[in-house]
Amino acid sequence: MRIVPPAGPARALAVAQLTDSIGLGGYLVCSALYFTRVVGLSPTQVGFGLTVGWAVAFVAAVPLGHLADRRGPRGIAMLLALCTAAALLQLLFVRSFVPFVLVACLYSSAISGLNAARQALLAGLVAAADRTKARAGLAAAVNGGIAIGAGLGGLALQVDTAAAYLAVFAVDAVSLVVSALVLLRLPAVAPAAAGTRGEPRLAVLRDRPYALVALVNMVLQLHIPMITLAIPLWIVQRTNAPGWTVSALLVLNTVSIVLCQVAVANRVTGLVSAVRHIRYAGVTLLVACAVFATSGLGAPTWLAVGILLVAAALQSGAEMLQASGAWEISFGLAPEGRHGQYQGFFGSGFTVARMLGPLLVTTLVLAWGTAGWLVLGVVFLLAGIAMGPAVRWAARTRPAADEPAALAQV
Question: What's the CA gap between 58 and 113, in Å, rounded?
C-alpha cells in the first residue's frame, strides 16, 4: 500500500503540507490555553474572536482563490503562506481582545486563501485523472504532520509556561516559511486568461448547481466537529469510559487516515464513483451515530470503550469516503482555469462547519442524547443521498462533463 506520492509535483506538495501541518498540530493543541491562561482572554472572547475570524475567511476565500487563478497559484500560495506565518508571529505580541480578533481575521483569511491556492496549483500540475489520488496523499501528509505537531504541543502543555506556548507559535510560523520555500521546487502554473467581456469575475458565485453541491458537502462535513468536540464531551459527560478514550479515538482517526486514505481514494475514478462514495459515507455516518448513542446507555467501562472504538472506526471510514468523493466532485465540476475560486468556494463549507458545527452538533448530542445522535445520523444519510441529484444537475450544466448518462444510474 503506497502512502508517499510518486516523485513529482504531488510529492513536493505533500512535503509542503507535511511541513506546515507539523506547526499547525502544535498550534491546535496549545492555542486555547495560551489565549485564556497567558493572554488573559475569557473562553467566550476566544470563541467569539475565532468565529469572527472564520466568518471573514468565508468571505475572503473566493476572491483570494480568484487572485491565485489570475496571478498564478504558486506565487500566491507562497505569499499567503508567508502572510499566515506573519499572523502567527503577531500572536506573540497580542495581549488584549481587539488585537486578537484582528489577528484571528488575518490568520483565518490567509490560511483559507492558501488552501484554495494550493488546490489550484495541484490542478495546474497534476492530470485531471490523478488529482483525487494526489489530494489523498496530501491529506495523509497533513494528518501525519498534525499528529507530530500535536505531540510537540503536548510537551508545551506539560511545561505550561508562556515561553513554551510562544515557542510552539514560532515553530508554526517557521514551518510555514519552509513550506513556502518548498513550493519553489515546483514549476510555475501560468495564470488563467481573463474572462470575456460581460462575464462575472467571480463566476462561482453565480454557479447555483455548484453552490448546491458545496452546501450538501458542508452538511456532511459536520462530522469534523463531531469527532473533535462533540464526542470528547459526550465521553466525559454521558459514558462510563475513562478520559483517555478521547485520545485513543483521535489517534485511531489520525492513523486510519494516514494509512488508508490513499487506498480509499484510489477507488474514485470519476463523478459516478465519487457520488457512490458520498452515499456510502452518509450511510456509514448514520451507523456510526447509532453506535455512539449506545455508548451512553449505561454500559460498563470496558464495553463503553469497545463501543466507542467501533463507532470511531466507522466515523473514520466515513470521513475517508466523504473526502475522496468530495475531492473528485469539486475538481471535476470546476472549469479549468478557475480552480482557485471554485476550490475557495468549495472549501468555505469547511469554514462554515468550523463556525457553526460545534454549536449545532453539541446541542444535538448533549441536549438530546440518543435522539440527538439519531437525528444527526439521519441528516448525514439525507445529505449523502442528496449528493447524487445535486451532482447530476451540475454535470448537465457543464459542456465538458462526460458522465451525465452514467450519473443518471446512481
Answer: 10
Are residues 265 and 133 in contact, defined by beta-carbon separation less than 8 angstroms? yes
1-189 adopts what CATH topology? Answer: Growth Hormone; Chain: A; (1.20.1250)
Residues 333-344 as b or e (16 or more Cβ within 10 Å = b): bbbebbbbbbbb
Tell me whether residue 283 is exposed, middle or buried, using C-beta atoms within 10 angstroms of its C-beta: 0 to 12, 13 to 18, 19 or more.
Answer: middle
Residue 371: predicted pLDDT? 94
Does 1.20.1250.20 match the CATH number of domain 203-410?
yes
In order along the chain (410 residues), what is the average pLDDT of each group of 10 residues?
69 90 85 84 85 90 92 94 93 90 94 93 90 90 88 83 89 93 90 58 84 95 85 88 85 89 92 96 98 93 95 96 96 90 91 80 87 96 97 84 56
Please answer whether residues 185 and 323 qualify as being in contact, where contact means their C-beta atoms are separated by less than 8 angstroms: no
Taking phi over 0 as left and psi of -120 to 50 as alpha, with beta for the rest, 336 belongs to beta
The structural domains of the chain, with segments of one domain joined by +, span 1-189, 203-410
* Structure letter (DSSP) for residue 242: -
Q: Which residue is listed with cell 468571505?
A: 59
Tell me the DSSP string of 277-299.
Answer: HHHHHHHHHHHHHHHHHHTTS--
Rounded Cα gap, residues 238 and 246, in angstroms: 13
- Pick left, alpha or beta for residue 298 (phi over 0 → left; psi -120 to 50 → alpha; otherwise beta): left
Residues 203-207: contacts with CB within 8 Å, 24+ apart? 203/335, 203/338, 203/341, 204/62, 204/338, 204/341, 204/342, 204/344, 204/345, 205/62, 205/345, 207/342, 207/397
CA 187 from chain centre, in angstroms, equals 26
Give ∠ CA 123-56-45 in degrees, rounded to 5.
130
Is the separation of the CB atoms in 12 and 135 below 8 Å? no
- 56 vs 39, 50, 62, 257, 315, CA distance in Å? 23, 10, 11, 29, 30
Q: Residue 305: its pLDDT value, please?
A: 95
pLDDT at 197: 47
Given this model, what pLDDT does residue 196 score? 43
User: Could you give the dihedral angle defined by the CA atoms of residues 130, 135, 140 and 141, in that order, rounded to the nearest 10 degrees?
Assistant: 110
